[in-house]
Amino acid sequence: MNTNMQDYITHSNTREWAPLIEKGVHYAGIFVKSLRYDAASGRSKTILLRFEPGAKYPYHNHPAGEEIFVLEGEATLEGATLRAGDYLYTPPGFKHSVFSKTGCTLFFVIPEEVELLDEPLNKAD
To answer: Residue ranges per domain, the chain?
Structure first.
């Protein structure tokens, strides 16, 4: 095991926000920063997401659950509004969409890739 602490630190303030594009779908108004990339699964399992006002992520399932911490702004999931400082754990198999009327920044831990249940609106060209 590598014991160099510097190899495990992510300086998120030095990283640029990237548009959220998954499987060729561009989610307008949603941006991502990877905090922890897992080479074995080929995906990021810990991320920051920034929603611009009015942005929405479609209805989806979390096969292994998720953890969300709201850093700033507000996000609505299935009628529940989360505000800065709120934490949400959703158990495996939990389904919901995410909408932000005002915009927000969220810290996510997502052990497994989500399964979309609604057709996304924006396909990337």
So the answer is: 18-116
H or E element in which residue 119 lies: none
Fold for domain 18-116?
Jelly Rolls (2.60.120)
Strands (E), the chain: 18-22, 25-38, 43-51, 56-62, 66-77, 80-83, 87-90, 94-99, 104-109, 115-116
Mind listing the pLDDT tens digit for each residue in 4-51?
999 889 999 999 999 999 888 899 999 999 999 888 888 899 999 999
Structure tokens at 98: 């995410």
Is this prediction's pTM over 0.70? yes
